[in-house]
């Protein structure tokens, strides 16, 4: 993931939406936060609620809705 990439976010209220990566915030342990055109994302959310492809995001959303 790099500046300018599109990420796909499974928002609790907005559902699936996309945003563009703008900035990375670093701390003592490396990347801590990703700022996009829509929101700030804790790096721990990659693969949980934030995905690099629409297909991964749609699959995760379907699984969440089944529960």
Give a structural overview.
The chain contains 1 helix and 5 strands. The chain has one helix spanning 54-66; strands spanning 6-11, 15-27, 30-36, 40-42, 50-51. A 5-stranded antiparallel sheet has the order 4-3-2-1-5, with helices on one face. Strand 3 and strand 4 form a beta hairpin.
Spatial order of the strands forming the largest sheet:
4-3-2-1-5
What is the string of SSEs from the N terminus onward?
A: EEEEEH
Which structural class do you get from the secondary structure elements?
Answer: alpha+beta
Low-confidence runs (pLDDT<50, min 5 residues)?
A: none
Strand tally = 5
- Arithmetic mean of pLDDT: 93
Q: What is the 3D form? A: globular
How many angstroms does the end-to-end distance come to?
A: 29 Å
Largest sheet: 5 strands, antiparallel
- Total helices: the number is 1
% residues in beta strands: over 45%
- What Rg do the Cα atoms give? 12 Å
State the helicity in percent bands. 10-25%
